[in-house]
């Protein structure tokens, strides 16, 4: 069992040999890895580079992509069980997937093209029927095709992490509407009393 597991693990790792990606890119793209397996992408256009980036990240980090997608979509419990139900409820309540679809409509054509190329790269690698990382075999799941909304939803998880002080911001907003500046400063000494605390400005900042 150990030998089979080791063989599976070795087969799931990307080759250190230089690779050439010819389709469906507009020009030949080369992926060269150093002795540590770190890839360098040589491409003739931005779109081809984003496609190769998706292709390479699927090779290197497919399980990480799977976990990130499930976190953003509130689907961890499908594979990890009841311990992650509360987290799934939280992310489904936030509605990041729905928000990602709205964000897609607001993107520029160039941004859409980049995200679509990255998505196509991931799915092109999946379509080659590769040996999947060991985690997929252990949990007996198959990766679904990637979508542009998966990338946008994970970007919103990043934004959520960067906004980790949102509760304190809301507290300051509510207290600032009820107390004079001197008392507000006493309760929130790290904040500039002259800074706006209106809901409108808070929404704009976010």
Write down the oligomeric state: single chain
Enumerate the spans where pLDDT stays under 50 for 5 or more consecutive residues: 198-206
Number of continuous helical runs: 11
**What fraction of the residues are assigned to beta strands by DSSP?**
5-15%
Topology, number of strands: 3
- What gyration radius follows from the Cα positions, in whole Å? 22 Å
Helix amount, in percent? 55-70%
Order of helices and strands: HEEEHHHHHHHHHH
Shape: extended
Q: State the separation between the terminal residues, measured CA to CA.
A: 51 Å
What is the secondary structure topology, with strand pairs?
Layout: H1 2-12, E1 19-21, E2 29-33, E3 39-42, H2 46-73, H3 77-80, H4 85-94, H5 96-106, H6 109-127, H7 134-139, H8 148-162, H9 166-178, H10 181-187, H11 199-205
Antiparallel strand pairs: 1-2, 2-3
Helix pairs in contact: 2-6, 2-8, 5-8
Written description of the protein model:
The chain has 206 residues and is mainly α. The chain has eleven helices and three strands, in the order H-E-E-E-H-H-H-H-H-H-H-H-H-H. It has a three-stranded antiparallel beta sheet with strand order 1-2-3, covered by helices on one side. A hairpin with a 5-residue loop joins strand 2 and strand 3. Helix 2 crosses helix 6 and helix 5 packs across helix 8. The radius of gyration is 22 Å and the shape is extended. The C terminus is likely disordered.
């Amino acid at each position: 069992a150990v030998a089979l597991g080791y063989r599976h693990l070795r087969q799931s790792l990307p080759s250190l040999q230089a690779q050439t990606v010819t389709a469906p890119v507009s020009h030949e793209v080369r992926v060269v890895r150093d002795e540590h397996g770190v890839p360098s992408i040589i491409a003739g256009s931005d779109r081809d580079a984003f496609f190769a980036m998706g292709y390479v990240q699927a090779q290197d980090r497919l399980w990480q992509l799977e976990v990130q997608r499930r976190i953003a979509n509130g689907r961890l419990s499908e594979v990890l069980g009841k311990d992650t139900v509360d987290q799934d409820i939280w992310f489904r309540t936030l509605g990041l997937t729905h928000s990602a679809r709205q964000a897609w409509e607001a993107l520029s054509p160039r941004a859409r093209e980049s995200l679509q190329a990255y998505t196509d790269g991931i799915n092109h690698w999946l379509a080659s029927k590769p040996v999947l990382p060991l985690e997929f075999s252990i949990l007996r799941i198959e990766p679904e095709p990637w979508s542009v909304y998966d990338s946008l939803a994970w970007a919103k998880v990043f934004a959520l992490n960067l906004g980790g002080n949102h509760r304190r911001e809301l507290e300051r907003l509510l207290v600032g509407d009820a107390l004079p500046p001197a008392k507000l400063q006493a309760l929130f000494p790290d904040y500039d009393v002259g800074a706006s605390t209106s809901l409108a400005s808070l929404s704009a900042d976010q």
